[in-house]
Structures are given as structure tokens and as C-alpha cells.
Amino acid sequence: MRHGAAAGEPRGDGGTEALASYRLRGGPDLRPADLPDLIPSEHLRFIKGCRDYFETVRHLFAHAYYEPDRPLHKQSWGGLRWASLPPVLARHCSGKVAIVGHTPHFCGEVLDFGYPKCIDTFCHGGGWQTALEVSMGKVWQANLAGVVREE
């Protein structure tokens, strides 16, 4: 997705398909102005209640990457959701281990750099869905064929 894409523009991130799933209630010509009326209020409440990040004493969790020199509460919305891993990684200023995604690793392995750990194992493209238990470092994965594996 291009950061800041206007409503109604192709997104390329699965958002178009997600919005299309509501067309059953809204007809074939879904317009952005129709969205508040077409998406069930409980879905909107859930989405609006989602956090930009989550943190514990030792870890921080974000969908994408982080700005290393900024406290989490001062991070840009776009960075936390859309930034891929940069060529040169830096530990977050909090010193916490970051669990991130949004940079797919096509071979299906967790990218473990010690302080960022990227668990995007290309699920959206047919790879593995990955779960990481952070205190022990245990990994569980499943693929579309129903194969489950543990590390």
C-alpha cells in the first residue's frame, strides 16, 4: 500500500478485498462514503479500538517497524504499520526487544537479529503463519495446507 492512499484508490494490501467482503450488503458499487453505513458498528468499534503498538517490560510489538530514536508514544502511525525493515537495523531507544512484521521472509524462518525479531513468514503469499512465545522463544507455524510445525 502507498502510505496515504486516498479512499477508493487501489490499495494492494488486501484492504480492497476486505472492503469488497461488505459488498454483499452494499451492492456492487461500493463508495467510500457508504462505508460507515455498510460496515457493522461492532466491526468499526473493534478496528478503532486496536492499538498502534503493545509493550511489556522486555518487549515491544508492532505490525511493521519502529523509529529507533523515538519513544513508542511518539512514533508515526505509518511507520508502525507500513515500514519495512531498513538495511541497517537499530535497537529501539527503550532497549526492548522488538517483535515486528511487514517484511516477509520467504523461506519461512523467523528473522532473529536479537533486538528486532521479524515474524513475517509470508503467510499472505502462501507461506507460514507464525506465532512466537517471547519468553521462551518457542515458535509455532501453520500453512494453508494445514501443516503445523514447532521449533
The helix/strand series, from N terminus to C terminus, equals HHHHEEHEEEEEE
Low-confidence stretches: 1-11
CATH topology of the largest domain: Purple Acid Phosphatase, chain A, domain 2
CATH class of the largest domain equals Alpha Beta
Our count of helices gives 5
Total beta strand runs:
8
Shape: globular
Q: Trace the largest sheet across and list its strands.
A: 1-2-3-5-4
Spatial gap, N to C terminus? 32 Å
CATH architecture term of the largest domain:
4-Layer Sandwich
Supply the helix-strand structural class. alpha/beta
**Residues in helix, %:** 10-25%
Give the number of domains.
Answer: 2
Largest sheet: 5 strands, mixed
Mean pLDDT: 85
Radius of gyration: 17 Å
**β-strand amount:** 15-25%
CATH homologous superfamily heading of the largest domain = Metallo-dependent phosphatases
Note down, in words, how this protein is organized.
This protein has two domains: 15-49, no CATH class; 54-150, 4-Layer Sandwich (Purple Acid Phosphatase, chain A, domain 2), CATH 3.60.21.10. It has five helices and eight strands, in the order ααααββαββββββ. It has helices at 15-20, 23-26, 35-38, 41-49, 77-82; strands at residues 54-55, 59-61, 97-100, 111-112, 116-118, 128-133, 138-143, 148-150. It is globular, with a radius of gyration of 17 Å. The two termini are 32 Å apart.
Précis, in short:
The protein has helices at 15-20, 23-26, 35-38, 41-49, 77-82, and strands spanning 54-55, 59-61, 97-100, 111-112, 116-118, 128-133, 138-143, 148-150. The chain has 151 residues and is α/β, with parallel strands linked by helices.
